[in-house]
User: Fold these one by one.
Assistant:
Number 1:
Amino acid sequence: MTAAPALIDDQALGAVLRGATPRSLRRRRLATTGYWYVRLCQAVLADAERPGTLLAPFSALPADQRQRAVAALIELPENIELLSLRMLGPVIGRLRQRHALNALGIEALAAAVVLDATVYLSAPSPLLESALAAEGRQVRRVSST
């Protein structure tokens, strides 16, 4: 029996792309959501003057490693699945009837349901975690630093 896919948030995705995959995610099939991917792209590619949680780990890398990590962000590796909203849209519509989540949360919930995934979060998200539990999905904490 293979382990459930790992649906990873933006911070964990950043760690993977920087070559710092958390131990709990190694040798796992990885996926992320469009919203988490976009948030990471916005944070890293906007190159803000004050790096936040998503940008700071990229900024701390030596120039050559940072360049490789940004290239991986721009051209997401094939081994990281990203579900289309074409597939998730109908699922989101059905789940919206039962869960009052924002766009980020409902997309994550739908992706977890479609993939039958365990969700790895870098920070607590009580509403999302409650919805995931209601849909029978497991949530794990992951350190992305």
Note: The chain has one domain: 6-141.
Number 2:
Amino acid sequence: MERRRLLTLAIGGAASLVAAACGSAAPSSIKKLAARSTTTTAKRAQPTTTTTRPKHKASATSTSTTSSSEPPTTAAAPPTTTAPPATTTTTAAPSWPAIVPATEVAVGGTFDFTFGAGSSHSGEPGIIYQPSAGTFVALDTICTHQGGICAPAAAGILLCPRHGSKFSLADGSVILGPAIYPLSKASVSVDPSNGYVTFRGDIS
């Protein structure tokens, strides 16, 4: 019993010593730890500022100098040349006594026209006939019976619509009455200067 009591006292004294030792050392240790942590926190909290410096000052300067130099010159556009307008020469068709281009009257074909000034049949209807290549005949188509206007009715024939008189296209002669007299004729030929069948004069 006595031994247990002594053991208890010894343990209690030892605990008191430990507590005293810990109590006196703790504040200073805590202070040191707090100071270190504060310092470390402060160091970590400091913002890091990075200053970027231009690596090539010379190139920057030369670039600004180049940009401020004289503006680029644009190449002048080549002068435009205007071609002179094309001149078109229009030759007017020959007037009377020229009648029609010979190429427009086929062999065996006819062409109607009106006699012009210089002919005794001026103002009257006429017809040109080409019975063979290069040969042209011109007739006044007023019927010699009672003045009807004759027109082609069959190959080489002119027919009067009033009474049926028939005339030859080759020379105007009567083929069938009641007409007695042939149709009036005119002299025509091809003008070599322009190729037109041209009136040369009255025949009858």
Note: Helices lie at 2-45, 57-67.
